[in-house]
User: Which sequence fits this backbone?
């Protein structure tokens, strides 16, 4: 039972490079989320997908794009990485119905130099 | 829109002592409330949640939380902590209508000393 799988676990990028963070869930969840975690800031929502075929901006969307490829997969793309995007990124999923909790991946630690 | 305030960024405590981690929320609508735990280098996992009914909710690993509507609080407690409880704890809310997106507090680092 894999749950939510994120790849890669670690990544170092140079400023201006691009990359895509991959996320897949095997729980048949409707909703998927991308958060970033920074010290003292908690988890901040970057983008979310309430259901297959829809995506919406969260609290901190600038510099990111997302694709809900199908019900299972939700990717996050950094088109031109900046040092301010150094963070730990978490993908999460939920049924998206009343009172249901989110399930998280293990995170991707990204450093932009 | 809703928000969550975790009043303590760090809580040091000795092993076998009781602990309370505080959480207050603000929302224009009724909410569901959650506590998550994050062990080092891992993702978050659910400790407990309040949906309705009894205001005292029991979760995993001996944790419990009490919902207080008048105080808009959802404090997490454990009567006797272990070294293994050292972790980051996050309080979260979702609205009772709409897209049910979790909004998280900034987290409280629980440090249990031997």
Assistant:
């Amino acid at each position: 039972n894999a749950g939510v799988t994120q790849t890669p676990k670690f990544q170092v990028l140079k400023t201006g490079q691009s990359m895509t963070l991959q996320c897949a869930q095997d729980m048949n969840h409707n909703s998927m989320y991308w958060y970033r975690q920074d010290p003292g800031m908690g988890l901040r929502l970057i983008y979310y997908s309430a259901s297959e075929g829809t995506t919406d901006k969260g609290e901190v969307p600038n510099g990111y794009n997302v694709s809900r490829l199908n019900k299972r997969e939700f990717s996050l793309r950094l088109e031109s990485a900046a040092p301010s995007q150094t963070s730990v990124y978490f993908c999460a999923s939920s049924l998206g119905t009343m009172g249901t909790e989110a399930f998280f991946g293990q995170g991707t630690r990204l450093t932009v130099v | 829109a809703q928000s969550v305030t975790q009043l303590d960024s760090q809580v040091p405590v000795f092993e076998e002592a009781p602990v309370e981690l505080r959480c207050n929320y603000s929302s224009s609508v009724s909410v569901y409330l959650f506590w998550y735990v994050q062990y080092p280098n891992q993702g978050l996992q659910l400790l407990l949640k309040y949906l309705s009914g009894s205001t005292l909710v029991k979760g995993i690993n001996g944790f419990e939380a009490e919902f207080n509507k008048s105080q808009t609080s959802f404090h997490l407690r454990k009567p006797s902590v272990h070294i293994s409880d050292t972790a980051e704890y996050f309080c979260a809310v979702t609205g009772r209508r709409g897209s049910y997106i979790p909004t998280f507090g900034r987290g409280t680092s629980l440090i249990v000393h031997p």
Notes: Chain B has no helices and twelve strands. The first strand of chain B starts at residue 2 and ends at 6. The two ends of chain B are 41 Å apart (CA to CA). Chain B touches chain A at residues 6, 9, 32, 34, 41-46, 49, 51, 90, 92, 94, 96, 99-107 (CB under 8 Å).
